[in-house]
Design goal:
The chain is α/β, with parallel strands linked by helices. Helix content is 42%, strand content 14%. The chain contains nine helices and seven strands, in the order βαβαβαβαβαβαααβα. Helix 3 (68-82) runs parallel beside helix 4. The relative contact order is 0.15.
């Protein structure tokens, strides 16, 4: 039931981090993967290489997910290259973390366009393609920040909250045939978060009931499930994959985190 053989999946923002883990995991389940990136072509090729070395199929596709026309064009390119589209994982995001009074209009637009605006139009375009071959699954990557508010996450949290509402709305409007669900990751051990604070895994592990910070691989099983026939009667749901963090929501001190690189990311 979790076998994705013969399916084609697009993972946005798959050149690094959680997106890279999801792309590799979906490929291991049998899917052919369209690896989306905006600026990190080398990272996207590294993702493709790892998939191919494990006998999977992958191709990199450059697109600005925050732009409606760019997202739609990528969906068309993926369908032309692979011959179909079955799964879309809306993973690409912008963070722009920092104090509330330092958030600029450019920050706000970048976050909302990437997390919410682009995926709205991209999901509609993807659903059209999915219906050509009988249906499919859209999986939106949300955040624990939606359920329990975290300091310095203002624009990001609002956009992710909108993404969860969009998940439920599209689940209703695209049914039957196209299922729409969400995954909400917790604090995750990856390069970006280690740039904020080298002690990031320890600090978040200390406030997580499961006793550790998450790894990218922790999201693969739930994502494969939502993409697969095993979740054929599941739609409009948000699954929190957080090691129990939202049961209490304790947050480590973040005032000394270095968020300066956020505005420099392409």
């Amino acid at each position: 039931m979790n076998d994705l053989t013969g399916q084609v999946a697009v993972v946005t923002g798959a050149s690094k981090g959680i997106g890279q883990s999801l792309a590799i995991g979906l490929a291991a389940a049998g899917a052919q993967i369209a690896v989306n990136y905006k600026t990190d072509a080398d990272g996207a090729e590294q993702t493709c290489t790892q998939i191919r070395e494990a006998a999977g199929q992958a191709q990199a596709f450059c697109a600005d997910i925050g732009c409606k026309s760019s997202f739609e064009a990528m969906i068309d390119d993926v369908a032309a290259h692979f011959g179909r589209l079955d799964v879309l994982v809306n993973n690409a995001a912008r963070t722009r973390f920092g104090p509330l009074d330092e958030v600029t209009e450019a920050d706000f637009d970048d976050v909302v366009d990437t997390i919410l605006r682009g995926p709205f139009f991209g999901s509609i375009a993807a659903a059209r393609r999915m219906r050509e071959t009988g249906g499919g699954s859209i999986i939106n990557i949300s955040s624990i920040a939606v359920r329990q508010i975290i300091r310095f996450h203002s624009a990001y949290t609002m956009a992710k909250g909108g993404l969860e509402s969009m998940t439920r709305q599209l689940a209703l409007e695209l049914a039957p045939g196209v299922r729409v669900n969400g995954l909400a990751p917790t604090a995750t051990n990856n390069v970006r978060n280690l740039e904020y604070d080298p002690e990031f895994p320890q600090k978040w592990g200390d406030v997580t009931p499961a006793g550790r910070c998450a790894e990218g691989k922790d999201y693969v099983g739930p994502c494969v499930f939502l993409a697969s026939p095993a979740a054929g009667f599941v739609t409009g749901q948000i699954i929190y994959v957080d090691g129990g963090w939202t049961l209490q929501g304790w947050t480590p001190e973040m005032s000394d985190f270095d968020f300066s690189a956020d505005r420099d990311r392409g």
